[in-house]
Amino acid sequence: MTRHVLLNNIDHQDTRVIHYFSPEFGDNLHSALVFPTEFTELQKEYPILLRKDDPQASYQAIALLGFAAAENLYLSNQHATGWDARYIPASLEKGPFLIGFQRSMAMQDEKPDPVIHIDLDHPKVSTTQGQQLFLSQGGHSPYLEHIAARLDAIHQGAHLAPVFYKALEQLELIEPVAIEFTLCSNEKIRLTGNYCINEQRLASLPADALVKLRQSGFLPLIYAMVFSMANIRHLIERKNTSLRQKSPE
Description:
alpha+beta, 3-stranded antiparallel sheet, 11 strands, SapC, Peptide ABC transporter permease
């Protein structure tokens, strides 16, 4: 069930949100939808891959969090937030919040403005624990300001993503990638259905194409995707550490 309402400092003065990540809150996901506006931060922690649901669908970017269903290797009760990374994908960190749109009564012909909604039935919404949303004077708390920035990254990224991915396709920079390795338990893992940047093609792009990518702001995003692939090795290390901790002495 969901119960989305427009967030306001009168009805929700006492509403709090638990800024903690764990399986009980549904955070045990093996991947998270991510947006180009996050790539420069994401590439420091996660592999960034592209996926599409079917051949006719558009590409979407994901941050890989685990290698099996319901496996998020970044969840850790040893950390204050329950998340062991310096940056949390916005689609997960936003928790019960989402973007809505509202027109001013005086400006009906104008484009609607984005506003913050909250799902009051979300398991992280509380009146007794968690982060305060509004200050006693009615202004946004630092936590809500942070969430507003994450929602803006999603909003801006959702508009940028199709343009960016189309540019990658036109330059033939996307290629399928199979991720294969063997765990310390001797279990073999093979992930398919993902796409990454074709580095050889990127290196051979003509100068004018590189200039256009740089001018559009896309070149740093492309390199963020390339550099992020090194995090697959770190993710494998997390998986092996988890297996060793679970195995009997």
